[in-house]
TrEMBL record:
Pfam assignment, any one: Polysacc_deac_1
Organism this protein belongs to: Pelomonas parva
High-level lineage: Bacteria, Pseudomonadati, Pseudomonadota, Betaproteobacteria, Burkholderiales
Enzyme Commission (EC) number: 3.-.-.-
All copies of domain NodB homology, residue ranges: 51-231
Presence of keyword Oxidoreductase: no
UniProt keywords, alphabetically: Hydrolase, Metal-binding
Name used for this protein in its record: Polysaccharide deacetylase family protein
InterPro entries: Glyco_hydro/deAcase_b/a-brl, NODB_dom, Polysacc_deacetylase_ArnD
GO molecular function: hydrolase activity
Length: 236
């Protein structure tokens, strides 16, 4: 696996950011390549210092919750990466473009959110083709990154993505925010506990979850309180 080239593209938070918000400490640009990162399944993303986190969101866009996530991120001057499913991307193209136009990065997360370990190879290929077509149709550019639904990576799609030069993003820490009936404090405790073990890295959250959307201001403040610094990812 080739090592990604990391280039610092920005070092300061936006001018409207105050000292009391989390902010984005820097932006890192990755090469478009068939790499795979995230210690849940692969090597750690190179170039991240201890205490640096990359915020990522799965399963959107969803009109009932994604706008609240966007507002919380904007209020804290934080940039993130949104791994979108093809079906909601197609249903809500304006919201998908709103995410992109707010300065966030958009990646792919499977067209139907299937568990590919349970699908025939032909169906896996059809899902990837549909996902890529939806991405290009809505966002007008070639996709550069992909996260497997359920993190259920398959040899068939890993090979296809590597051939296409699309980076696979796994995770390093999360809040298990897909589990029901969790308060902001519960989500923060889980997230900070996992980050305490990993030291930082790629964070998995879900903008399609109402409880996550409600908790975002609290979670961002909790990250700031513990001294974590946000790194935004882009691809060349």
């Amino acid at each position: 696996m080739a090592i990604a080239t990391l280039t610092a593209a920005a070092t300061a938070a936006e001018p409207t950011c105050g000292a009391d918000v989390l902010g984005t400490s820097r932006t890192v640009t990755l090469k478009r390549e068939g790499a795979a990162w995230g210690t849940a399944q692969h090597a750690a993303l190179p170039g991240l210092a201890p205490g640096e986190v990359v915020l990522t969101f799965d399963d959107g866009p969803r009109p009932e919750s994604t706008p609240a996530v966007l507002k919380a991120l904007a209020d804290h001057c934080v940039k993130a990466t949104f791994f979108m499913n093809g079906e909601p991307l197609t249903r809500h193209p304006a919201l998908a473009r709103q995410v992109r136009d707010a300065g966030h990065t958009v990646g792919m997360h499977g067209y139907r959110h299937d568990n590919f370990s349970q699908l025939p190879a032909e169906d896996q290929g059809r899902d990837l083709k549909a996902m890529m077509a939806a991405y290009v149709d809505v966002l007008g550019e070639a996709p550069a990154s992909y996260r497997f639904p359920f993190l259920a990576e398959s040899p068939v799609l890993l090979k296809a993505l590597a051939t296409l030069g699309i980076t696979v993003m796994s995770v390093d820490a999360g809040a298990e925010d897909w589990l029901p009936d969790q308060t902001p404090q519960m989500l923060a405790d889980k997230l900070l506990g996992q980050l305490g073990r990993s030291g930082g890295g790629i964070v998995l959250l879900h903008d399609a979850q109402d409880q996550t959307a409600r908790a975002m201001p609290f979670l961002l403040q909790a990250l700031k309180g513990k001294g974590y610094r946000v790194v935004h990812l882009r691809w060349e």
